[in-house]
Amino acid sequence: MYPEWYLRERESGQKSLEENVVELLAERNYTVTTAESCTGGLIAGTIVNAAGASEVLNEGYITYSNGAKERLVGVSHETLERFGAVSEQTAREMAEGAARAAGADAALSATGIAGPGGGTEEKPVGLVYIGCTLNGKTEVKECRFDGNRMENRLRTVRTALEMLRDMLAGQA
Question: Are 94 and 79 in contact (CB under 8 A)?
Fold first, then answer.
């Protein structure tokens, strides 16, 4: 089920990315939340792999439908109509809205097309937008992954956690 690169990282004996992120959050006494569409909770689930996650992760949102994006994390209906669920704007509003809803210092969002179906010429399979908000500053990254569904989801998780780690490190 998991790609070889993911399993190799877990067997390396070094701290995992999620352990590093949880430590950085705990050192700063920050909390994190997630708003996830294409990852379906996998970002939050990966954070929970790290000991101490309960100190930094209070809640997360799986916002697979547009209605859930609007209702749970405040993505505007206009944004969804104009740009679509898979867009930089939606990823930004998901991250910022999740941070507000949870009262968290940081939030990660992911919206995209994991595959194997659902892609179009304009928005192909593997297109993912990842949002990261930290203390009111938001960055969004456009990614184009080329793996199978699970690989695309795992690469999204990794990229999201790397974004948060890098933003936290930039505050040091």
Answer: no
Q: Which two tokens stand for residue 67?
A: 């209605």
Q: Residue type at 104?
A: A
pLDDT at 5: 62
This prediction's pTM? 0.94
Strands 127-134 and 106-112: antiparallel
Give me the sign of the Cα torsion angle 20, 58, 170, 41.
positive
Q: Where are the domains of the chain?
A: 15-80+89-161
Q: What is the pLDDT of residues 141-158, one digit of tens each?
A: 999 999 999 999 999 999
- Give start and end residues of each alpha helix (H) in the chain: 4-11, 17-28, 42-47, 53-56, 66-73, 77-83, 88-102, 149-169
Token pair 């990261």 in the structure block, residue:
132
| Structure tokens that stand for 172 in this block | 């040091």
Superfamily classification of domain 15-80+89-161? CinA-like (3.90.950.20)
The two tokens of residue 36 are 């996830």
> From CA 54, how far away is CA 155, in angstroms rounded?
24
Q: Kindly report the number of other CB atoms within 10 A of residue 167's CB atom.
A: 18
Residues 161/13, Cβ–Cβ less than 8 Å: no
